[in-house]
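Give me the 3D structure for Menaquinone-dependent protoporphyrinogen oxidase.
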Amino acid sequence: MKNVLVAYATRMGATAEIAEAIADELRSADLAVDVRACSPDLDAAGYDAVVIGSPVYLNRWLKDAVDYLKRHATELSRRPVWLFQSGPCGEGAADEQIGAPVAVRKAAILIGTDPPRTFGGRLDRTKATGPVSRWMATGTYEGDFRDFDKIRAWASSIAGELTQPSSNGETRHRPAVPQSRRRHSRIKVDR
Ligand SMILES: Cc1cc2nc3c(=O)[nH]c(=O)nc-3n(C[C@H](O)[C@H](O)[C@H](O)COP(=O)(O)O)c2cc1C
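Predicted structure for Menaquinone-dependent protoporphyrinogen oxidase (191 residues):
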């Protein structure tokens, strides 16, 4: 049985719940899944594949998630990786795809994976972590714009790629940067 790490960062809990939903879907496809918060000592080495997600705050991923991509880039480049981000709130948010922060786009290239898939976010006054969050969570942006059908469908497509080998027996893993360059590359950008 293949094992998958679902690593996430969160400030107000919404992205952690997306990570859990992804994990549930992967488990229903007979994959073994661990869901963990991004941290420096979270090692990807023991996993066949990794899914990583962060909320977007002021057009950036949370530091824990970006640091995780940077610190573990070499290990991540050796296995299939999928990225997601949660953020857009308000009308049409569930269908919105926003660009990834520059640091995340660069990390995706180094790792050899696609830019993150965007899912709608959640702004809930009762979970707000400070005055700005409370203010944001009032009015048109307040609410839960996560579409769990879309989230599960995305996770299901990942499960499909992990459980059904392609005709040539390869996974989708496709390092975008030659190994020699990856080994010496550093991502020198802010979040
Ligand atoms: C102060 C603040 C800034 C935000 N900035 C962005 C942003 O730049 N882009 C975006 O799409 N969503 C933004 N959001 C929405 C959050 O990404 C969304 O609420 C997300 O689901 C929160 O995830 P979490 O509960 O896991 O922390 C912002 C929310 C707050 C409170």
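Residues 3-182 form a domain with the Rossmann fold fold (CATH 3.40.50.360). Let me know if you want a second pass.
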